[in-house]
Amino acid sequence: MAITYRIDSGERIVYITTTGESNFAEWRETMLTAISDPAYRQGFNFLSDRSGETDVPDPEFTRAASQFIQQHRDEFEGVKWAAVSSNAAVYGAQRLFIALSAATGITVQAFREYEPARQWLLGMNAEHHPPH
Length: 132
Fold this sequence. Notes:
alpha/beta, Transcription Regulator spoIIAA, five-stranded mixed beta sheet, 5 strands, 26% strand, globular
């Protein structure tokens, strides 16, 4: 299992990539590391790519992730979160995350393909951060 992140300061996006199996503890540690990274700024958006994930997050994982966002509301307020997976079951878990995230102050959208998700985030940023 591997959950990694990369911050693109120019795009104002934190890219989270999950490959293999995942668990909440690893996800939580990756998120804490990302929001503590000196390159991270409040208001950066997130692209969670689960295209390479081999298991399906259970509802408890999804609830815990939503609670994590709520507990760190200051860091995530106003953030847009794009969730990507072509796996129908993972996509379903992402739809649950959307429902649970309504109270967290972030806007979540699920995508089946990577590039439309990235473009959605970039489009949201474009009004505040014109392309270079």
